[in-house]
Amino acid sequence: MKFIIERGVFQTSLGKIQGIAERRSTIPILSNILISGEKNNISIVATDLEIGVMEISEADKVEKGDICVPARKLYDIIRELSEERVEIQSGENFWVSIKTGTTIFNLPGLDPQEFPSFPVTDGSAYFSVGASDLLEMIEKTVFAASTEESRFNLNGIYMEKVKRDNEEFFRMVATDGHRLSLIDKAMKTTLEEKGIIISKRGLTELKKVLGDDDEAEVAISIQNNNCVFKTERIIVVVRLLEGEYPDYQQVIPTANDKHIILDRKAFIGSLRRAQVIASEKGEGVKFSIQGDSMEIRTGGPEVGNVQEEIKIDYQGNPLEVSFNARYLLDVLNIIETEKVQLELKEELSSGVIRPVDRENYLYVIMPMRL
Fold this sequence. Notes:
Layout: E1 2-6, H1 7-16, E2 32-38, E3 41-47, E4 51-58, E5 60-63, E6 65-70, H2 71-80, E7 85-90, E8 96-100, E9 103-107, E10 127-130, H3 131-139, E11 156-164, E12 167-175, E13 179-186, E14 196-199, H4 200-210, E15 217-223, E16 226-230, E17 234-239, E18 258-263, H5 264-278, E19 284-290, E20 293-300, E21 304-311, E22 319-324, H6 325-332, E23 339-344, E24 351-355, E25 361-365
Antiparallel strand pairs: 1-5, 1-7, 2-3, 2-6, 3-4, 4-17, 7-8, 8-9, 10-15, 11-12, 11-14, 12-13, 13-25, 15-16, 16-17, 18-23, 19-20, 19-22, 20-21, 23-24, 24-25
Helix pairs in contact: 1-2, 3-4, 5-6
């Protein structure tokens, strides 16, 4: 096998799959990638048996064949080269040469026949979503998924189709039991009535592989307990998580009648200052809401204290409530609108945060006892 490729294109492709090709795997071949050549294209495949990625790139002088080489070592070599074009060629006993200018690297490879086969991704019904919409949905949910191994069904993001007012939506939901993040996009889907759970890491790697190509269309399908994401040049296959996702609808408040409008950036600034103290005492911050102002305070005799007042738009009765400052900052940092709406009911009830004038996203946060 042989091909010549632009170094920058090759480096970008190799960089995207580094998180999937495991360096410390107990199965040595999983720390390698499979490169196959045919006609004017090469395909680069990486897998850890839970996530698989194939990216197709254009190349010159492609001779049909396969090579299997260490992913990290090849990436490190390509990254350090100075010439614009690189020649890759297979040799005897699965060795691989990398040539550019007067530089020649030789790497020991493995038998390509031993590399895990990539799942067949044709023959099932797909639905299409713009990459920019999909990337937004991932960004607004993955951070809220649980990282506790004992809560494996909360380690993923729940994907389902929902119908509202005779319109169909594609929904993603994530929760760790302390907060919940939910986003809808109006579109037709081929998902079954029962939703699926896809791993947080799988969506994180998908986001990395898609990169900045927010103009692409992504086709999505469920096949053989996998979720398949396809663009013109990329295929990502993520194994679905087993188990039942909790009835998340039960934790979304529907009677929060106290609505506070805040300037998002001002709120972030106050919370960051409060967190200097709050992070030393468990992240809890108390909010005293009255009239057109909200006092933010936290601290104690051992760590010091801080209090600050910010302007708000609020017409209801006075209220005090406590939340985790970090959980608030997590959501405020991924909302784009200038104003956000905080919806409350009483001191020990969950709060809801929404972007003002955006109906497709909400964030639920549990209160703290301080």
